Amino acid sequence: MQKLGILSVLTAGVLWGSMGLFVRILTRDYGFTSFQVVTLRLTIAAACFLILSFIKGIGILKVKISHIPILFCAGFFGIFSLSVTYFLSMKYSSLSLAAILMYTAPIFVMIASFFLFKEKMTFMKMLSLIFATIGLVCVSGIFNGDVGVTVPGVIFGLLSGLTYGSYSIFGKYALRHYQSYTVTAWAFIFAGLSSLFIGNIGDIYNKISANISPLFILLIVSMGIITAFLPFLFYTIGLSKLNASKAIILASVEPLVATVFGITVFKEPTDIISIVGIFTILTAVVMSSAKKDR
Hints:
It contains 14 helices and no strands. It has helices at residues 2-16, 19-29, 34-56, 68-92, 95-102, 105-116, 123-139, 151-174, 180-195, 201-211, 214-239, 244-250, 253-264, 272-288. Helix 7 runs antiparallel to helix 14, helix 8 packs across helix 12 and helix 12 (244-250) runs antiparallel to helix 14 (272-288). The protein is globular.
């Protein structure tokens, strides 16, 4: 069971790591804003969950009214607010600092899990968290130039870490009552609805109309499926089989994958520090995959 959980979370991290490919193409080549990309990504994923729910039987979405607030929080804070705060952090600071601050999430999750789920703060967890953090700093490129520290950038960055971590907390609680698909589907329904208020729907429609083609439709649908629908589903499956703090540390393969994509697809320069960072993150993942914590 634990092996399936580890594999599910690692798969989610790899898929999340591909998001930069879609964001760059849609913003650079088609003129979408970052928030419009958020709206497209979340609404397409929500639509996928709804379509699959009708195929599987709409009863799979049946939940108690008393649990709606938890599912709403998972979607609004853990998915929608994460996207907003992360993009705002990138706007007011450097990309490297934004990434580092977002990955303060394992710290929030580890502390919250200790109090809410009675998860132990073991030596192995703490060590893997330290390795993951060091690796992230190395691959972020922070040693190559100005980190662009600003007060708004730091605030939004820390908020992105908090909201990122909140999905694991709200999701873990919801998984006590429902299967992973139900939890993720409801979270995306709320996240997708929330995103409609920030993307300027009229402008999105105009840009889609101006660029309509089979390739373009494939691009935006693929973005929703590959960077949102599938990874969050896999992550929630993993979360149902692992403790929350272990799951979010394993998900730190995301920046590693993003770095590899940047090097191989966009021919971004690399150096020995980035390579060290990649292996350090892999070390953290291996430690987090240990059957027993000590």
